[in-house]
Amino acid sequence: METIIQGGTIINEGRAFRGDIVLEDDHIAALYEAEKAPRGIYQQTVDASGCFVFPGIIDAHVHFREPGLTHKADIESESRAAAFGGITSYMEMPNTSPQTTTPEAWQEKMNIASHNSHVNYSFFYGATNNNTDSFASLDRTHIPGIKLFMGASTGNMLVDRRESLEYIYKVCADQDWQLMTHCEDTGIITANMARAKTLQEDPDIKLHPLIRSEEACYESTALAVELAKKYGTRLHVAHLTTARELAFFGLNDRITAEAVIAHLYFSDADYATLGARIKCNPAVKTMADRDALRRALTDGRITTVGTDHAPHELKDKQGGCLKAASGMPMVQFSLVSMLELADKGILPRERVAELMCHNPARLFRINDRGFLRKGYKADLTIVRPNSPWTVTTDVIQSKCKWSPLEGHVFSNRVVTTICNGHIIYDNGRFDASYRGEALTFNA
């Protein structure tokens, strides 16, 4: 089937220009400058006049909670939220139940997604203290990388012994895996929490960025970078939170960093009004840190922007630093949040496409996605500017049905999401029958 997307402003590969895009079945057939598309009869026409047309957004950092934690979220509900937010592909993290630390557990997730995911999917393989022998046998064409928790995890997924870390970095280098790390120093956090608990059993949520402190992040990130340099590992540090850590990045294209929406959008001043709704690990930190991260979006120190989408039931978000669960649902609102920053002059729209489409595709070596190019998969997101809407409970698609953004008015609206040439979301209408494809990687 031939589809033409007409009259939009195409945001792609550093350019913004008015033009048309022709799709043939699940691929992009051609891109044309304004009014240069050949005349003809197309089986489907999408009027994008007055809209921005982006490549489909790729979120390289989500927690969809399935299997084992489906009272919070599941692949069906969260991939639906993704589609409503213009996300056409995601990479999901391994800390589910069971953890994705064996080939069998990874395959189970792939099977679930093939039946339930509305958009394109992939799943990280989790490193533990004793599963590195399995890395060589994994299906590299369908796995984006190895996820390593150097802090903020429990059980066998917490790897903080130097000997184990050294071996994981060496194996990933030898096998050319992309290693993605959660960097927080568990010892520093534990000591900070113990001191805080001497004053209050469940420390006030405002202390969260002091307990999960700048020092805890910096020391762990410093170690990650040291080991990556020692072994030549391809390292991507997840959810950077501090200005101090930024000094490690932008110098080596094999050592890169991610920022996520929570740390770009909120600061410690927001704990006063939002409380534990913005509690996440690593913690939302100071306004100075937030502003430094925003500046790094345009100077090469931040390579990708994701969400760390991590739904919890709202009842589990009650309490302070000890009792309230960490994480928030953001996948539906990431693109519009970044476009709000663009409207404020913090970065160009073209850079939004770089951080959320092009760079994730390059970094993780995704085949035929992340760009609007002839022959590439037809994943596209259409956004209408100057179209205000309010985040309310009834628009939230995540299973948990809450957001720290409730009540916020966005001026950019995702109007159409096209996945593999299929219009899955269009002006409030959602095709619940559609299923995405497994991402493939150039291993």
Which helices and strands occur, and which strands form pairs?
Blueprint: E1 2-12, E2 15-24, E3 27-33, E4 44-47, E5 52-55, E6 57-62, H1 75-84, E7 87-92, H2 103-116, E8 120-123, E9 125-126, E10 146-149, H3 162-175, E11 178-182, H4 186-197, H5 208-211, H6 214-231, E12 234-237, E13 255-260, H7 261-265, H8 271-274, H9 287-296, E14 304-306, H10 334-343, H11 349-363, E15 380-384, E16 389-390, E17 409-410, E18 413-419, E19 422-426, E20 429-430
Parallel strand pairs: 1-4, 1-5, 6-7, 7-8, 9-10, 10-11, 11-12, 12-13, 13-14
Antiparallel strand pairs: 1-2, 2-3, 5-15, 15-18, 16-17, 18-19, 19-20
Structure keywords:
2 domains, nine-stranded mixed β-sheet, 11 helices, alpha/beta, Amidohydro-rel, 443 residues, 22% strand, 26% helix, TIM Barrel, Urease, subunit C, domain 1, Dihydroorotase, Metal-dep_hydrolase_composite, six-stranded parallel β-sheet, Dihydroorotase_CS
Protein model, in words:
With 443 residues, the chain is an alpha/beta fold. It folds into 2 domains: 2-53 and 377-430, Urease, subunit C, domain 1; 57-364, TIM Barrel (Alpha-Beta Barrel), CATH 3.20.20.140. Helix content is 26%, strand content 22%. It is built from 11 helices and 20 strands. The longest helix is centred in the middle third of the chain and has 18 residues, at 214-231. The protein is globular, with a radius of gyration of 21 Å. The two termini are 31 Å apart. 53% of the residues are buried.
CATH class of the largest domain: Alpha Beta
According to CATH, what is the topology of the largest domain? TIM Barrel
- Tell me the overall shape: globular
Whole-Å distance between the termini?
A: 31 Å
Query: Mind telling me the C-alpha Rg?
Result: 21 Å
Q: Report the sheet with the most strands, covering strand number, pairing sense and barrel closure.
A: 9 strands, mixed
Proportion of residues in extended strands: 15-25%
Low-confidence stretches: none
Number of helices: 11
| Oligomer description | single chain
Helical amount among residues, as a percent range? Answer: 25-40%
* Strand segment count: 20
Mean pLDDT: 97
* Class from helix and strand fractions: alpha/beta
Number of domains: 2
CATH superfamily of the largest domain: Metal-dependent hydrolases
- Per CATH, the architecture of the largest domain is Alpha-Beta Barrel
GO molecular function, one term: allantoinase activity
Protein name: Dihydroorotase
Organism: Segatella oris C735
Pfam families: Amidohydro_1 (PF01979)
